[in-house]
Amino acid sequence: MASILAVMANASNHYLFLSNSGFMQCNTNSLKWTRSQLFLMSRLLQQQQGVNLWNGFVRAQLKEANEDREKGERFKLTEFIAQNKTELDCTYSKLTVVQEQVYKGQILEAHEKKQWTARANPKAVQHDINASLASMDHEGFYIAVRGGIEDLSEPKVFFTQKAEKFIKDILHMEPWHLGLKLESYVISGLDEGVTPNCQRPLNKIISECHTFIQDALKSILLKKNIKCSVKMNYTNYECKIVERHGVELVNWPLSGPVRNPSKVSGRNEVEKLWGALDKGTCHWVNLSDDDHKAQMQLNRERHTRGELVYVKRKQKRTKTSHSTIDIDTEDKNDDSDSSSSNLD
Question: What are phi and psi of 285, to 5 degrees?
Fold first, then answer.
């Protein structure tokens, strides 16, 4: 600031020298007008640096007068000064040094707040952040996008050299495109929990249910030192799995007995089964000797009552030399882990 004032003073002295020497006598503008133009900037700079005590005093008095008034009934500044000019002048002339310092402090505080508000605009903030990050030894980036469709601000992005290289080489996109993707995500409402209606294929869920059951069965049998491959038998589950190996699938989440997931009716039921298997609420357990015997006795009682506990195997008839040979076969449709049904 001092250098500016020095330049202005030198220009003023040079102008006075020219005017006194008759060099500017041909100029149509008056000496007073030229001098005022020459010192205009200097006066403006001086005015910006000073503190107008009167303005601070009047605004404080206006604020006090409007304190108990409702909105719409408050005094305007010009109106308040016009109505109370004499009283204001009298009070202002009697201000003590302490009171003057208080009003000056209020003016400076308001001035600082006003300057901060003026700097808090997107371009200024972006400039400050860019300058701060550029002077740091750290690598990174920031992206700022508009928060609503009515906001017309463009995305603000900044990338350091290594961060920009990361976006291009690893994410395979231009850094600016990352900002656009974030903007589209925010504007579309996806950040508010709106998820696209994308259901998984039902046969995929059924296949995962098979995998859950089979893998867990294999794991629990290995703990019992049964190393041979045992395939889950849904048709004769009680006989071939529970009674033969002493394990049981507990907390079956669906109504009815344990059955092939491909035989479960409806997507909701399949997803319910998948959730129970995934969370582990439906799982395999080892039966104690007493529980094993009790379960076998219960199965026989149920079978005696006519319940379908022990399913007869299908018989395959083959003709050889006019004789019939019965071959036991499993129900491939029920015992297979693959699902031929397509429920949705």
Answer: -135, 150
Residues 276 and 215: their CA atoms lie apart, in Å, by 15
Q: Please list, in sequence order, all residues whose beta carbon lies within 8 angstroms of the beta carbon of residue 106, skipping any fewer than 6 positions away.
A: 56, 60
Cα 190-193-196 angle, rounded to 5 deg: 60
Q: Cβ atoms within 10 A of the Cβ of 189, count? A: 10
What region, left, alpha or beta, does residue 144 occupy, with left being phi > 0 and alpha being psi -120 to 50 degrees? beta
| Contact (Cβ atoms closer than 8 angstroms) between residue 308 and residue 167 | no
Q: Supply 285's token pair.
A: 């357990």
Whether 80 shows a pLDDT value over 50: the answer reads yes
- Per the confidence metrics, is the pTM higher than 0.70? no
Nearest CA among 111, 115, 107, 118 for reference residue 63: 107
pLDDT tens, residue by residue, 295-337 = 899 988 888 888 877 877 766 666 555 544 444 444 444 444 4
